[in-house]
Amino acid sequence: MLFNDLILIVTGMFVGFINTLAGGGSSILYPVLIFMGMPIHTAIGTSRVGFLAQGIFSVAGFKSKGVFLYPFNVYVALAAMSGGLLGAWLSLHTPAKRLTHILAFVMVLIAILILLQAKLKKNHLHPRIKGKWLWISFIVYFLIGIYGGFIQAGMGFMIILAGSLVNHFNLTEANSIKALIVLVLTMPTLYMFAIKGHVNWQAGLAIAIGTAAGSWLTSRWSVHVNETYLRRLIACIVILLAFKLWFYQ
């Protein structure tokens, strides 16, 4: 059991490292949990313990730097949370084999997004967060929330894309929105999975320790890596895991 916890701490650190530098780390975490013998619903529920820890540290970090976008961020976070409740309900009522195939398919899409993410340029346009754009944002983030509640992997990419295209946020602003949405959405959906018995708290704590440590260390110390090669490596790993997951069991 201790060996499994060590694997999950190291995996969590790797996920935190990837999410801080490139994104898409959760698409590696899910297969690791499943290949360790965890049912997919439990893997999704348990992963949310790590997402919760990462969300707390991320929100605190952005707020300490004055990047908070209040009250818009609260509005869209609540919209996403509403969608997340529906998504979590759908996930819990989806047969395990079908959910596994959906996850494998989503992972391939995430690999593509990882490669395309570098093409997103920093935005310097005036943010669109009032009037009709506020209502459009409610709808967009509600729909993203449904996906986040359902499976969550890759949700960060969707939030950043929505923030760029819909709200004209720069990358820092979009990431601050992402941090609060992940935190607010994770809390009730984690509870939904927990009351159904789909959370392994010991494994979740190990993941949380790893993701928090990986995110903190990566953000504190300048890591000189070529992001292009890193994205390609992550995309290849995710695609290989997706194919293995598709034919698993």
What does this structure look like?
The protein has about 250 residues and is mainly α. The chain has one domain. Helices cover about 80% and strands about 0% of the residues. The chain has ten helices and no strands. The radius of gyration is 17 Å and the shape is globular. The two termini are about 25 Å apart.
User: Looking at the structure, what is the overall shape?
Assistant: globular
Number of domains: 1
Largest sheet, strands/sense/barrel: none
C-alpha Rg (nearest Å): 17 Å
First and last CA, distance: 23 Å
Number of H- or I-type helical stretches: 10
- Based on secondary structure, the structural category is mainly alpha
Provide the succession of SSEs: HHHHHHHHHH
Strand content range: under 5%
Q: Give the mean pLDDT.
A: 84
Given as residue ranges, the uncertain stretches (5+ residues, pLDDT < 50) are: none
Helix fraction by DSSP (H/I, runs of at least 4): over 70%
Q: Number of DSSP strands?
A: 0
